[in-house]
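S1.2 Input.
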Amino acid sequence: MAPSDTRRRAARAYERGRALAAVRQLAPIALLLVGVPLVSGSGPGWAALGGLLAAAGAVAVWRGGVAGRAARAGLLAGLAPLVAPIAAGAIGHRCAGCGLPATLPLCLAVCLATGAAAGAILGLMAARESQRARFAGAAIAFAATTGALGCVFAGASGLAGMAIGLALGGAAPLLTAAARSR
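S1.3 Output.
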């Protein structure tokens, strides 16, 4: 066996191991990304988007680097707004009635609060990265898409609430880190 064959096999085995590790890490999240839209009544289109998001996250984690760290962080931070419909249902709220003026404030508040929590987590993590802007951009994109799969139950106002929460929650840690680095 030639040394080049051995190197090729080793490289293939290494990449296969990294790909399997990424799939193993994200499998539970993938189940949530596909399952929550189906359980909350958002529909199969949103569940399909969840499957695509899980695949994109697995590829980013497999590739590694800043994008891999950001994808993992964004998917994990986005779990809070993703499971918001389940949490609201646990306290007796039925998201199917979110169009009613009496129940909309709860949906909006839940999406805003969970978005702010996700944004704050990502802002703190991005502040520690050398490539803050790249990390923050990728992580927020993954978190926003993940959260949208849950907050879509409240319609456009739920999505807007989550987006505002993400932006406000993540702004303070990033601005603080930028001021310290000057």
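S1.4 Remarks. The mean pLDDT is 84.
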